[in-house]
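Recap from last week: sequence in, structure out.
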Amino acid sequence: MPDEPSIDVHDPRVLRALAHPLRNALLGLLRSEGPSTASKLGQRLGESSGSTSYHLRQLAALGFVEEVPGGSARERWWQARHRSTRWQTDEVIERPGGREVVEEFTHLSLSMQRRMLAAHAEQREDLDPEWRDATSLNDWGLHLSPAAARELAEELNGVLRRWRAEREERAQPLVSVLVDVFRLGEYPS
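Predicted structure tokens:
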């Protein structure tokens, strides 16, 4: 598991490169499952090792992944350099190409969250009772100003950063925590 907590992205071009679905999936697997080879990642994702190798090199050029020392020319191992990626939408959106890449990345993130929740629904009954009881799927609605909503998001993310730093048990399985704070113009029917 990467030791560096996160990487802050300020350049829309870097965010666009990360918004590529295969690159995003590769980075996600390296972050959640640990170091791997292009071949193993390709098998996991149904892609050729040539394709995964190319995209891993692109991620390395951007500083998101790195080669694990000690590999061979035939079997190169890769690892994520950071545990998460952060960016400020208002900072990125004002730069050339920023609005488009934020939209693209938002749709990619929502698609991944849907897949994660669907996978949980399918796998829930196979979990040990302790894990089923520990699961928490909630939706809250609060009446807040934009400033208060931003403060809430920062506080929730701060709690998760603190838990990662102080309470995480690296020998235990990965637990996914999705935190979304957003406003709807109209509640879906």
